[in-house]
Amino acid sequence: MSDFTxxxxxxxxKEMDTDGDGNLSLExxxxxxxxxxxxxxxxxxxxxxxxxxxxxxxYDEWHAFWEYLLNNGYSDEQIVSEVINxxx
Length: 88
Hints:
Layout: H1 3-16, E1 23-25, H2 26-33, H3 39-49, E2 56-58, H4 59-70, H5 76-86
Antiparallel strand pairs: 1-2
Helix pairs in contact: 1-4, 1-5, 2-3
């Protein structure tokens, strides 16, 4: 993952983590994505990224998810563009 992509993923994670506890709750995900990522998609995202099943997405889980996508055909540019533009 490029330094730019890591920087953007950290920035987005921190922006989403409104309570600053280092984890993303379903509520924080819903608040961030708003109408672009409704409850069903947020639940699916939570299920895919929350690999230990504790109901929150840790930064390690967040980072591992994007690494997985990079290793399975997505480019840094696609990932950054998708995440940044999805909330606009």
